[in-house]
Amino acid sequence: MATPATAVAAPPNSTAETAKDYYDDASTDRFYTLLWGGQDIHAGIYSSTNDITAASIATVAKMADTVIQSGITLDSKTRILDLGAGYGGAARYLAKKYECEVVCLNLSGVQNDRNRELNRQEGLVDKIQVFEGVFEEVPAGVGEDFDVVWSQDSFLHSPNRAQIVSEIARLLRKDVEGRVVFTDIMASADAWKKQPELMGQMMERLHLSSLATVEFYQAAFKGKRFRKLGYWDGVEHFGTHYRRLGEELEKRKEDLLVQGVDEKVMERHTGGMKKWVEAKEMGCVQWGIMCFGR
């Protein structure tokens, strides 16, 4: 049964605090809820759909399949930690389809409140816990000994991704096989050399000094004695995702204004979406599903 969640404030004047302020903004939250579908905030897989919500669910499904294919059973005994859970769409998918117990850790109090409310509406409060906190210092109340650590497009917000890997190593079960499965928006190995101006513009928008690379994660997890189990390259879908978001934003702009999304928020996102598509076309970003085991 779920226990009461605890809240841990972001460190002052930090990247985490900046991200929290951004995602807790009412207009920004409204934007994500309306444009993404209110369940997920991550890139989708468009192999069999052109719909943003359906594509986002397809990513969750493929990640679950990745875990299963790696030799881990997903069932009522499986404990999963979702780092950067957003509105909790993945947690509800895993709880409903596989009856897993899921703990969500997320920085935004606004998103966490929506996550809890959706869990209540779907009768999942005994399956899903929601905690507020940062990846680099996971609150003690979250617990340890997870079978799977899961994340979608969240680690890019951290200035210390090596510490995230250390926390994952601490939180994953040590007595049996465990898995880490995640997606992240990453830079290609030569991105800064090829397009320094474009990369600088994106870092400024995200309030970051860097993006990770596939090679970084492979080395970081190897350093913690994890085995690389696979990397599914989905960068083509990443480009499609941000192109589709841009199309929907343009088509629904007036409706979004009426429903409370500030015009400046839409302008900022329009520019950001175009930059992601440009970065993908220039070969500067990577995105896909990474899986490690221990």
pLDDT average, as an integer? 92
Which structural class best describes the helix and strand composition?
alpha/beta
Gap from first CA to last CA? 27 Å
Our Rg estimate from Cα atoms comes to: 18 Å
Which stretches are poorly predicted, pLDDT < 50 over at least 5 residues?
1-13
Per DSSP, the total helix count is 11
> From N to C, what is the helix and strand string?
HHHEHEHEEHEEHHHEHHEE
Q: What does the overall shape look like? A: globular
Can you lay out the helices and strands and say which pair or pack?
Layout: H1 15-24, H2 26-36, H3 52-69, E1 79-83, H4 89-98, E2 101-106, H5 109-121, E3 128-132, E4 148-152, H6 161-171, E5 179-183, E6 186-187, H7 191-194, H8 196-206, H9 214-223, E7 227-233, H10 235-258, H11 263-281, E8 285-286, E9 288-293
Parallel strand pairs: 1-2, 1-4, 2-3, 4-5
Antiparallel strand pairs: 5-9, 6-8, 7-9
Account of the protein in words:
The protein is of the alpha/beta class and 294 residues long. The chain is 48% helix and 15% strand. The chain is built from eleven helices and nine strands. Strands 3-2-1-4-5-9-7 form a seven-stranded mixed beta sheet, sandwiched between helices. Strand 2, helix 5 and strand 3 (128-132) form a beta-alpha-beta unit. Helix 8 runs antiparallel to helix 11 (263-281) and helix 10 (235-258) packs antiparallel against helix 11 (263-281). The longest helix has 24 residues, at 235-258.
